[in-house]
Amino acid sequence: MGKCLLQDFHQYAGYLVFCLCLALWLIASSSFRRKLVVDHTAGVYRFYIHGHLRHQGPLHQIYIRMRAQKSGQGRLLYKLILHGYKIEEQQMSGFCEKYEVLEILGRRMASKLNINYFDYQDVSTRHLVNQWPKRHTIAEEEAAPV
C-alpha cells in the first residue's frame, strides 16, 4: 500500500512542478500592469507599464475603433478596441453580432473621454472625430528650438 502511494507521488511530481512554475509565471507577468491616463486639462495621454511612463502624446493619437471579423458561418462579428500611437491594442468588448449596440457604446465612450471613434470601415460617415492634430504655422516652426 505504501509503495503504491510513493509511485503515485513520483508519477505526479512533474505535473506539480509544472503547475508551480506556471503559477509563478502568471503572478510575475500580471505584475506588469498597463495604465492609460487621459489628461483633458493638458490635452495629453500618458501610457504607463509597471508604473513607468512609456509614452506621452496628444489626445488625437489615441482612439476607439470598431473591429469586424467574419465568423465560420459568414456573419460579421464586431468588437471595440482602444488603440493609439505607442500603446498596445486593448480589447474593450468581446465579439458581438449587434453592430448598433456596440457603435452606440463606442461613440458614447469616445465622446465622454473626448477621444476619436472610428468605424470598422476605413471610409465611413460614422466616424466621430473629437481631436484634430494642431496645425503649426511657418513662424511657429522657425521659432521652435531645434
UniProtKB/TrEMBL annotation:
Keywords: Membrane, Transmembrane, Transmembrane helix. The chain crosses the membrane at residues 12-28. InterPro entries: TMEM249. Pfam families: TMEM249. This is TM249 protein. It comes from Atractosteus spatula. The gene is Tmem249.
